[in-house]
User: What shape does this take?
Amino acid sequence: MSVYAPSGRPAANGALIVLLHGCGQDAASFAADTGWIDVAQRLGIVLVLPEQVRENNRARCFNWFKPEDVRRGGEAASIRQMVRVAAKSFNINSKKVFIVGLSAGGAMAAAMLAAYPSVFKAGAVVAGMPVGSAHGIGGAILRMHHANGYTSRERLAEAVRSSSPARRGVAWPRISIWQGGRDRVLDPANAIILAAQFSELHGAGSVFDMAEKPAPGISREVWGNADHPAVELWQIAEMGHGFPIDSKSPNGGRIGPDVFDVGLSAAEHMARFFGIRHSQTT
Assistant: This one.
């Protein structure tokens, strides 16, 4: 666990974002390359940066496909403990805790939303997997390359519900989903299935409530209120397996491993989706 805190101690009741890197990446470089360090500094956000070790996974991927690591155990429990420690240290508002992940980190982020819905208000998944897609390495490889398009929305939602004990009225976290159309590591259809999974959890229909094209080759579909959607799905036609940035923007990030300049800063859009808009530093 590493922590990034903006210069000057963050104000009381500030926001915290857990940032989960992809396979083979290191946490600090991933946070910088994706633009999250710059965004966090500007908005006064505390970043919790878990980093996978080779003893847990030789490719340094988060083990999103192991039930013992995602259902309030193993790695999931470790990440939860990191959040607890950082939230206490920086006096974080419990309603302003979020999680973001890429690839295996994205799949783990989705699993964390399912396992700890009372902890995370919202999350963002980039090139990730639906919750419950696999229960071992063989199934993980299969579903990464061939999404399971035959599972009903009800069964998809049940896979999330079974990951968490009774919620007692706690709302499911909102989710922002990002996917490249030229992804050759992961079947892009997994993003559509993940959107179906969470839109079903939120009681939305199978058809999105709003769609727009912010730029050529980029689409955004929304389920729920347009100003505060439960689910949004961004699809970037020409992007491969990675995190989208805008290197020309002051806070847009820089090109790095699995970080692609598409003229759009996902970190900026995610912060807005989370409702983090103004500086919270003292």
In short: The first helix runs from residue 27 to 33. The first strand starts at residue 2 and ends at 4. DSSP finds nine helices and eleven strands in the chain. The mean pLDDT is 94.
